[in-house]
Amino acid sequence: MLKLDLVDLVGLAETPVRAVVIRGTTEVEVLDAGIDKLSITWKLSSTAKKQANFTTIKVNLCYAPVSQVDRPWRRTENELFKDKTCPHKIITRAYNKSSQSFKYTLDRDILTGTYFVHTLQENSVDAKDYEVAFGQSTNEAKTTNLFSVQAISGRHKSLDIASVCFSVFSVLALLVFFVNGKRKAKLEQSK
C-alpha cells in the first residue's frame, strides 16, 4: 500500500492560497492495477487563508513526465481545461477543514506508467466551480515521490479456460452438423 499525506496546497493564478501539498512515503515502488491500494490523507495547513471559499476537493491520479514522453495525448497544459495529465479521477469530496483520508484501489483500466497524485481545491460561485488551490505528491519538477503502476496483462486462467471450452464446443458442433448432413444425404438417396 502506498501512503500519501497532503500537507500544503499552492494557490493558482491570482488567488494566493496556501492550503494543501501532498507528501508521500513509498513502501512499494511498483503497484498492480486492480489489486494494490493508495491510502491518501489530506488536511488543510494551519497557515491557510481564504479557506471559507473552498467548497470541494478533487483528487486525481496523474502521469509523471517520464510517462508523457512521445505521448501527446498525456501532455501537460497550463490551462486546466486543456490539461491531459490527470485523466484518472480518484475522488471528489465536499471541503472539510479537518483531516480526511481515502483508500483507493487502483482501477483495473489504469495503464502501465509512472504516476503521482494531484489535488484541486475548488470554490463554487454562481454554480460554477473555480480551481483556487492545488497540491501534488511530487516536487515542482515532478521527479520525486513518484510510483509505478503495472497494468493488467489481459490474460488470466479464466480466459484460458473459456477459450478451451469454446474450442471444444466448436469442434463438437462441427461434428454434429457433419453427421446430420451425412444422415440427411443418406435418407435422400434411399428415397
From TrEMBL:
<keyword id="KW-1133">Transmembrane helix</keyword>
<dbReference type="Pfam" id="PF16974">
    <property type="entry name" value="NAR2"/>
</dbReference>
<feature type="transmembrane region" description="Helical">
    <location>
        <begin position="161"/>
        <end position="181"/>
    </location>
</feature>
<dbReference type="GO" id="GO:0015706">
    <property type="term" value="P:nitrate transmembrane transport"/>
</dbReference>
<keyword id="KW-0812">Transmembrane</keyword>
<dbReference type="GO" id="GO:0010167">
    <property type="term" value="P:response to nitrate"/>
</dbReference>
<keyword id="KW-0472">Membrane</keyword>
<protein>
    <submittedName>
        <fullName>(rape) hypothetical protein</fullName>
    </submittedName>
</protein>
<dbReference type="InterPro" id="IPR016605">
    <property type="entry name" value="Transptr_NO3_Nar2"/>
</dbReference>
